[in-house]
């Protein structure tokens, strides 16, 4: 099947609850979901695991934990208990990849110290995650998000962090929206090799409507997503490919229509 690797990150169909999302994916023949901590915790991890089993849907990743610098624009700062709870929820629903968002620059504006805090925070979380069988996926965000969301902004920078840890416990997450612009992208993906444990796709809309909520469906923007997929595959990643869309216009559409459009476009706008 041309969509056997397709995963839908739950934020793409934000209007749906966790249960509605799982049922909707099954209805469209989509076998993977990118889950979020909040909806899973609200639904209940045991119920969520049973629902996933009943509908034959597997979890490609869990979003998210981290914010190791203490900066989180969605509220709160570094919360060790919340990060450990995210690990627990990931394991409870049968997933093994938990996405890490680094956090924005410290209030003291010391970028070097902020980036050092990311390494320290991951190191603190690794033993707990490893004991639960969960791998931490370090995700660089686009440089425009450095101040408030992530001081980790390139694949090479993220790999410098990832390579400090056992590959069984810490890997790299690649998101087309965040990395497509990088002139060193192909070399970084080749360097990453089997350290890639997560791959997310969406498009860069022109003009860009919003730095966070400006993601488009694959094929609607400026990114050559199939070329990036080809490079990710060549590096050795053969796992699910998550479509992750933050866009209020997409969220306002009928989720069934969104899934239909993604399924129809996936072989042409995502696969190499």
Automatic annotation (TrEMBL):
Keywords, ordered alphabetically: Isomerase
Residues forming coiled coils: none
Species this chain originates from: Actinomadura spongiicola
Keyword hit for ATP-binding: no
Molecular function per GO: isomerase activity
Annotated InterPro entries: IolE/XylAMocC-like, Xyl_isomerase-like_sf, Xyl_isomerase-like_TIM-brl
Domain Xylose isomerase-like TIM barrel: 27-254
Stated name of the protein: Sugar phosphate isomerase/epimerase
């Amino acid at each position: 099947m041309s969509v056997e690797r397709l995963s839908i990150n739950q934020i793409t169909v934000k209007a749906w609850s966790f249960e509605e999302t799982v049922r909707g994916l099954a209805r469209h023949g989509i076998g993977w979901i990118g889950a979020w901590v909040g909806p899973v915790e609200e639904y209940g991890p045991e119920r969520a695991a049973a629902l996933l089993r009943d509908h034959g849907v597997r979890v490609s990743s869990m979003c998210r934990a981290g914010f190791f610098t203490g900066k989180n624009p969605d509220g709160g700062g570094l919360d060790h208990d919340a990060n450990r709870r995210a690990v627990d929820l990931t394991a409870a629903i049968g997933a093994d990849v938990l996405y890490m968002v680094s956090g924005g620059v410290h209030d003291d504006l010391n970028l070097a110290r902020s980036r050092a805090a990311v390494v320290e925070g991951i190191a603190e979380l690794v033993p707990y995650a490893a004991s639960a069988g969960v791998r931490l996926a370090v995700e660089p965000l686009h440089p425009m998000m450095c101040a408030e969301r992530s001081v980790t902004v390139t694949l090479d920078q993220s790999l410098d962090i990832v390579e400090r840890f056992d590959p069984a416990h810490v890997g790299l997450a690649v998101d087309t929206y965040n990395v497509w612009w990088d002139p060193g992208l192909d070399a970084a993906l080749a360097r990453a090799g089997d350290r890639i444990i997560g791959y997310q796709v969406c498009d860069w809309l022109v003009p860009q409507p919003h730095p966070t909520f400006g993601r488009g469906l694959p094929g609607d923007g400026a990114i050559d997503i199939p070329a990036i997929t080809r490079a990710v595959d060549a590096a050795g990643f053969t796992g699910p490919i998550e479509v992750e869309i933050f866009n209020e216009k997409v969220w306002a559409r009928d989720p069934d229509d969104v899934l239909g459009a993604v399924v129809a476009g996936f072989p042409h706008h995502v696969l190499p």
